[in-house]
């Protein structure tokens, strides 16, 4: 049952979204050319037409304002761990690749997809970068974090296509040209990992990889790890019924905002067990193991993570299936609490999944 904080969150969605400052000729810097003059009434560059709290606001002119900005961390050597990273072109996409210190021989490859509702985020964001540094340090694996295009400027399937390009790049050793992969990548131990919208991307990438000849011979997707995955559907499942119909409306509205063409919440890309065809596609993912992680206080997505685990188990999926729940924390908590007890516990569970 959702608590009072979640109910308050829902009430605040339109309030916070409509409090976003209008964009100015200087862009999103917040520096107006004449701050003493308010925007004209019904100015298309200040009239909100779509709010996607807390990520962005779209104005009638088409202008997109992301109120959190886009702070980034440069690639390089992490002084605390010795992990080295660099940004590399990966066919039509780009990736940030991570190498653990003292790497010798062949080691696993983790292809990672960040979250952010398909509309914000990048491998260079501090939380994502620090997470990959920690994951690579603990697991001893090569990390490949994919830069994918963001909606609504680039609606789905753009992010799916970029994710696929990133996986194909890793699976071909960077087209045979990336020295870190050539020297150390064990392509019989490739893992797909993602959080929230990135977990959705990871699942859909695994489905795409099931096509005959999709990946080169010798490449094995050893595991798929979905952390607080973003899935939904037209019909409420489990405890979602207690959230009320406005949640289904909100999920439908935001899903349609990020995808170019869709039937809505019955789209198998966001509801992967919606019909027999979607169920077969999900059951056929070529991953030997699947780990689903949920958070106890993730009121919007916890039930869908449990549903995904339950439905995949019932679908005829032939691999091993694991479920892990973090207690007392909410959605994607680990980016801010990576060194907390729950953050370390979640990370160690993911590392154990990679090392198994």
Q: Would you give an account of this structure?
A:
This protein has 356 residues and is of the alpha/beta class. It has one domain: Alpha/Beta hydrolase fold, catalytic domain (Rossmann fold, 3-Layer(aba) Sandwich). Helix content is 33%, strand content 20%. It is built from 10 helices and 11 strands. The strands form 2 sheets. The protein has an 8-stranded mixed beta sheet, sandwiched between helices. A 3-stranded antiparallel beta sheet has the order 1-2-3, with helices on one face. A hairpin with a 2-residue loop joins strand 4 and strand 5 (93-99). The protein is globular, with a radius of gyration of 20 Å.
Kindly list the characteristics that best describe this protein:
globular, alpha/beta, AB_hydrolase_3, AB_hydrolase_fold, 356 residues, single chain, Alpha/beta hydrolase fold-3 domain-containing protein, Rossmann fold, three-stranded antiparallel beta sheet, 33% helix
Helix/strand/pairing category? alpha/beta
Name the CATH architecture. 3-Layer(aba) Sandwich
Provide the spatial order of strands within the biggest beta sheet. Answer: 4-5-7-6-8-9-10-11
The percent range for helix content is 25-40%
Q: What's the overall geometry?
A: globular
Unreliably modeled segments = 1-40
Oligomer: single chain
Would you state the CATH class?
Answer: Alpha Beta
The helix-strand sequence is HEEEEEEHEHHHEHEHHEHEH
Number of E strands: 11
CATH topology: Rossmann fold
Q: In angstroms, what separates the terminal alpha carbons? A: 35 Å
Q: Please tell me how large the radius of gyration is.
A: 20 Å
Q: How many helix segments? A: 10
Major sheet details:
8 strands, mixed
Please identify which CATH superfamily we are dealing with: Alpha/Beta hydrolase fold, catalytic domain
